[in-house]
Every structure is written in C-alpha cells, then in structure tokens.
Amino acid sequence: STIVLVFEAPADFEFVVKAGQKVKVGERLGDV
Amino acid sequence: LMNAWTETPTKWYPLPLAVGALLLVAIQYRKKAKRASKEVHVDEEGHEIIRLKGPWQVHVIGALPLRNMSRLWGYVNSLELPVWFRPFGFRLYALAFGCNLDEIEPSNLKEYPSLGAFFYRKLKDGARPVDPAVLVSPADGTVLHYGTIKDLHIEQVKGITYSLDALLGVERPGTPVICTHAHEHNRDLSIVDDREFANVNGIDYSLDQLIGAATPSSGSTTPTTDSSSAVEPGAPPKKFGTQVDASVEPEQSVQETLVHDASVALEMGVGASMEKRRSASGKTVKPGNALFFSVIYLAPGDYHRFHSPTAWVVEKRRHFVGELYSVSPYMAKRLENLFVLNERVALLGRWKHGFFSMIPVGATNVGSIKINFDQALRTNVRGRPPPPGTYSEAVYSAASPVLNGQPLIAAQEMGGFCLG
C-alpha cells in the first residue's frame, strides 16, 4: 500500500528525506 | 521412395522473407506502443481519460481478477488460527517480512486471532517519538518519490507523471455526497475577536482553559489553568503511541474533544483554522506558496496504521473505487497512472499553509482502507469498479462545525490498511 501527500506550502519548504529512504511514523519529512 | 527420403541430404538456411516479416512486425509494435504511451484521450469535458498503459507485463497483470483475488486473500487471512500455531506462524511472518515484534502491543502473539489481526497491530506507547517539524511521516515505509508539482502533474517516477485532477478528483455536479456524522456534540468553538471562547452546554470556556483542560469558568474569563495539565509553549508534542483514534469515542468527554479541536486550531494558527474552505484540488495556491507531494510505500512487513502528518483539518473525503494493482516500486516504474487507477481515499482539507491532502492508496494484498473518523467508508467491496475518476464524497463538517471538518494533530492515528 502507499500514502500520497499533496500539500501547499511556502516555496522555501524543504524535504529532509531522500528517495528510497526508510521512514517511520512521526519522523521529520520536511520543514519550512 | 524410401531411398530418396533417407538419402537426400537436408540443408537448412534462414528464410529471408520470414525474418523480414518478423522485423516489420516488431518495428510496427514498438512504434504503436510508443505512440500509445504519448497519446492522451480526453472525455467530453476535456478531462484526461485514465487507461491502462505500460509494457505487456502490465496488461497481463491487468487481465487478472485482482479485486476478487484481494477479497479472497482477505477472507483467508481473517480465518481464526489455532492458538498453539500463532506464535510460530507470526514469528515466521515477522522473519520473512522483517517485522519488529518488540514494539507491538499486545506483545503476546497468542492474542492475535488471525494474520489479518496481526497485520493491523498497534505499537507500544512511545514507540514512535514525534519530531516537532511542520511535516512528519504518516507511516512506516520507504519514501518512493517527492518533489514539487508543476502544471498540476505529479511525477510518479522519472519520466512518468499523472494529473492532480485525476488523483484528487474534479468537482463534478451530481457526485453523491454523504455527510458523515462521526459524532454529534452540542459544542461550539467560536473565535470571538482575539479572545477564544468555547461554549459547551451553556458554559463558557476560554481557549487557554480548554488547553489547560481546567474546570469551566462559570462566566469568568480569567483562565484558571492548573500547571500540571497546561501545555508549556514550544514543548515538543507528547509522544504518540497511545493510539488516539481521531474519531471521538463515546466515552471521550465533550471537553476533551474541545481541547483536541482547540489544540489543532492553535497549532494551525487560529486564522488558518478559521479560513473558509479552499478549492479542494489546491489549484489556487497563495502567492509565494507552491504545491508539493511525497509518496511513501508500505512494505508487507511494515506497521500498517497511518497517522496524521501534521496539524490539519480534514474537510472531506473522496472514495475512488478503482483497481487493486500492486503498488510495489517494480509496478510504480512500469504502470503509468498507477495511483489514479487504484482504489484510494483522498482526504482533502487544509493546514496552516493552505491546501493539504493525504491519499491512502490500496493494493492487491491490502485492498481495505480504514478511516477512524469515517464509519460510513467501505472499500474493496464486491462488484465491477466504475470508470476511473468516479468517486463518492463525504464531508466531515459535523465533526467540528467551527473548524468545518475533522481536526487532527500531528501523529494522531487516522486509520490503516487491512489485508484483503
């Protein structure tokens, strides 16, 4: 299964993850 | 005759004609496949018609009765297992798929009656500390892809894109809309100029009191928060792990619900939380903002409940009854429009920066999607799926009339994927 997030954010929003990286619930995905 | 048959030497040589013909067929097929992958078919309203596109493997998989297979898989995994077999069986599953048995709750494997129950397991308190960032991961899994959305098209993998309209649905007159009353409470959180009030059963609460969950002020507005339960400003959100269902449990008091709503309103920023509903597909972003996406793939051994990635208000959901192709990275690289062909539940709402949506997408082995605050939702039901792009819609305005939707705080449990 898959979860897709689509959201509006300030243009300087940055993801802090990489494609292929394992993540767990509550871990930082990105920040402004 | 016998002599001629046995003695005549046999000489083999390639038929130039057949080779040439085969070559022509192969060239023709490649040309047609290339043209088909570029072609976009649109309906009378100009919306792209989503069709199965990809290499021959995809068409072979597409010909299988995936939904029936998924329901059969779910039925088999709902069968009760003998108690003596459970520890051995679930340990074998955990070994095969890399599940971490130390963090599950309950830890006694005999308490899971079936593989389906084990698959929908919970985690121990504190098993997942919540990062104070503005966006956290909604699930355990692997980041398949992420980035910004350009001209309302999302990149599935390098070179393959799908349209945001197809993923989230286009507002269509006549779409069946159900209003789910997750719970009815006579509560009202009204933001009165800069003093926030909540009126519950005729008693006024100030917002700080609600956050401090203090006793109601009979008319007085001086907040009497007791320090123990007051939330220190800037304190990291409490560790989640107490699987707080977003749906308001009957025993949960109205005041607790209000505290919950108020904390979401505060975290979102009172202004944003009161903002009128924006266009559902996020087409109109505020100046200086952009649209982003990220895709997280949950492997069979991962913990399959999903949580809120931020403080936001879910205004509505659109349930697309689709196919149930596998969503493994292998298929994501080959099957175009995978996420808009599959069964999915698009949760649409807003957060402090504007439009926000979260779309759990089902797959062959996990065709059922549960949303804790939407008891009316049924996925992976029997029957032919309607044409892609068709959806049924439910609005959550009854959950919190003031916030006009279901308020969620970061890492709050929202629901999960079940087998079959």
Oligomer: heterodimer
- Judged by helices, strands and strand pairing, the structural class of chain B is alpha+beta
Q: Considering DSSP H and I runs of 4 or more, what fraction of the residues of chain A is helical?
A: under 10%
Instruction: Give a count of the beta strands of chain A, DSSP E runs of length 2 or more.
Output: 4
How are strands sequenced across the largest beta sheet of chain A?
2-4
What overall geometry of chain B do the principal axes of the alpha carbons give?
A: globular
Mean pLDDT of chain B: 75
Give the count of helical stretches of chain A. Answer: 0
Q: Mind summarizing the main beta sheet of chain A? A: 2 strands, antiparallel
Q: Nearest-angstrom radius of gyration of chain B?
A: 27 Å
Q: Regions of chain A with pLDDT < 50 over 5+ consecutive residues?
A: none
- Measured as a percent range, the helix fraction of chain B is 10-25%
Percent of residues of chain B in beta strands? 15-25%
Biggest sheet architecture of chain B: 6 strands, mixed
The number of distinct β-strands of chain B equals 19
Whole-number average pLDDT of chain A? 95
Largest interface: A-B, 30 and 65 residues
Give the N-terminus to C-terminus distance of chain B in angstroms: 67 Å
- Described by the principal axes of the CA atoms, the overall outline of chain A is globular
Beta-strand portion of chain A reads over 45%
Number of discrete helical segments of chain B: 12
